[in-house]
Amino acid sequence: MKIRIVVFLLVLSMKSTTWADTKTDSLLQILDQTILEHETYMHRKDIRIGQLKEYMHQRKGTPAEQYDLNMQLYKEYRAYISDSAIHYLNKNIVLARQLNDRYRNDECHLLLSYLLSSTGLYKEASDVLESVNRAKLPESLLIEYYICYDNLYNELSSFSQDEVSAARYRHIANTYNDSVCYAASPDSEEYLRREEARLRNIGAFGKALQINDERLSRTRFGSSEYALVAFHRSEIYLLSGQAEEEKRYLALSAISDIRSAIKDHASLWTLARILYREGDVERAYRYIRFSWGETQFYNARLRSWQSADILWLIDKTYQAMIEKQNDKLQQSLFFITILTLLLVGALIYIYRQMKRIAEAKNHLQEANVQLRQLNVELHQMNVCLQSTNVQLLESNQIKEEYIGRFIKLCSTYIDKLDAYRRMVNKKVSSGQTGELLKMTRSPESLDVEVVELYVNFDTAFLHLFPDFVAKFNALLQDDEQIVLKKGELLNTELRIFALIRLGIEDSSQIAEFLRYSVNTIYNYRAKVKNKARVLRDDFEDLVRDIR
Questions:
Q1: 3-state helix, strand, coil in the chain (%, to 5)
Q2: Fewer CB within 10 Å, N or C, the chain?
Q3: Which range has the worst mean pLDDT, 86-90, 130-134, 338-342, 443-447?
Q4: Hey, how many other C-beta atoms are within 10 angstroms of the C-beta on 326?
Q5: Do the Cβ atoms of 161 and 178 come closer than 8 Å?
Q6: Averaged over 137-150, what is the pLDDT?
Q7: Residue 424 near residue 436 (C-beta atoms within 8 A)
Q8: Nearest-5° Cα angle at 545, 539 to 453
Q9: Residue 193 contacts residue 215 (beta carbons within 8 Å)
Q10: Cα 409 to chain centroid, rounded
């Protein structure tokens, strides 16, 4: 609903040309919303009238000033409450006589005559017109005089039940119409309106629409002037057989009527009649009921009589439609009752089945809980087993690598020992004991063997863990990274933690292998852990996790 109201307010802000492009269905929805909000526009009208009356009450002006205020109130009431408009015109006639102002007196009589004929009081309108002395009328009121007679006889011809009288009234109206056209300026609204009607009646619809375009351009959407011109445009489309365009401009006219608080709704009840013929009885009923209420408020006897027949017909059709809907509703209620009983029976059966299902579900939930517990335990066992398998796989790889290296190294040392034995035997046999003693005193040969041992260890370890150096450096701070010298595979620090990675954590065993003291090994370990980017206590565990 909020979205519709927002859209409605946006549409209200458009220019009249945009309104003319709006589709009929959208306009009818806007008209529905405008009818719902009609009290808002009435309230605005009442505020203006109240302000004028308050000003009149507070300011006891001259008769001329009172005349002008009465004229403003007449204009506000003219299409709002006909009796009030007539009242203020009669007051002005009295004031004009007091002022001895013939112009104002004649002006009020002409306005009163036009209003009376428009509300169906033809005899009264004729009497008022006859009281005006045609010969003494100023030229500025002459056109209004012709207009009043034209309006009176047009109304009489439209609603006369006698065809002869109607024809006579039309002839008189045409005569006065010609007088208006002769006296009016070709650019005036009165002339254009009559020229448009003449062209429309002779079938020159294109030219009539051109004149109507000119008239529309002079008005503002939502004003009483726009409502009247849009209604005249709908009459062109009626005669030219363009039903959709006729409905659109009747809707635009009706919206403008309501927005300007006009209570004489010719457009709305005409639109209701068209919608009724098209089968949209519900909307036609709403429109005609609203139009009837507005007409009663305006107190226009003519419009009440005009809309009475269509109101009765639409109301009768609507009531028949309601009765038909009530019959369908009773049948639907009967079937709904039967379905309700069946539904109650089904619900009782379903309830019993649900109780059984609930019991089974409880048992199933208990079994699921036990199964989830077993799954958790099984998952934990699988995790442990996978971890054990990984460790076993690593252990097997390490064993295979180092057993192969050990066998090869043993074979190499046996060959070296045998060669050393033959060399010693040869030197002893040849009496070179001094040279032999010199060789045994020098540690050079031992150092060579130690270096070879470390090379074998480094090669085997890096074969198992090729990314060890990079991953080890990742555990150290950026400015404490270990950089190997050219030709080095591992250095002392890396070998210490390589042995830890292989599971040798005892510093004495590490010292024995690397031929250092235990304190030296301990200091190396502490020094490296101080360079770590992780917690000291977690460092060696993270080294053991390197893969």
A1: 85, 0, 15
A2: N
A3: 443-447
A4: 11
A5: no
A6: 91
A7: yes
A8: 90
A9: yes
A10: 82
Sort 206 into a burial class: Cβ within 10 Å, 0-12 / 13-18 / 19+: exposed
What distance in Å separates the CA atoms of residue 107 and residue 187, rounded to the nearest whole number?
A: 23
Q: Which helix (H) or strand (E) holds 14?
A: none
Q: Which helix (H) or strand (E) holds 22?
A: none
According to the model, what pLDDT value does residue 21 have? 60
Assigned token pair, 317: 């059709």
- Look-up of token digits 């009465």: 70
pTM of the model: 0.56
Would you state the structure tokens that stand for residue 265, as one six-digit string? 């709704």
What b-and-e string marks burial along 117-129, b requiring 16 or more CB atoms within 10 Å of the CB? bbbbbbebbbebb
Residue 532 has φ and ψ, to the nearest 5°, of: -70, 150
Cα–Cα distance measured from residue 82 to residue 295, given in angstroms and rounded to the nearest whole number: 10
Contacts of 270 (CB under 8 A, 6+ apart): 234, 250
CB 469 within 8 A of CB 510: no
* Assigned token pair, 405: 């290296």
The number of CA neighbours under 13 Å toward the Cβ of 360 is 6
Rounded Cα distance, 456 and 285, in Å:
106
Higher pLDDT, 539 or 16: 539
Query: 489-540 pLDDT, tens per residue?
Result: 888 888 888 888 888 888 888 888 888 888 888 888 888 888 888 888 888 8
One-character DSSP codes across 321-387: HHHHHHHHHHHHHHHHHHHHHHHHHHHHHHHHHHHHHHHHHHHHHHHHHHHHHHHHHHHHHHHHHHH
Amino acid present at 352: R
Angstrom distances, CA of residue 13 to CA of 45, 245, 252: 20, 22, 14
pLDDT at 392: 57
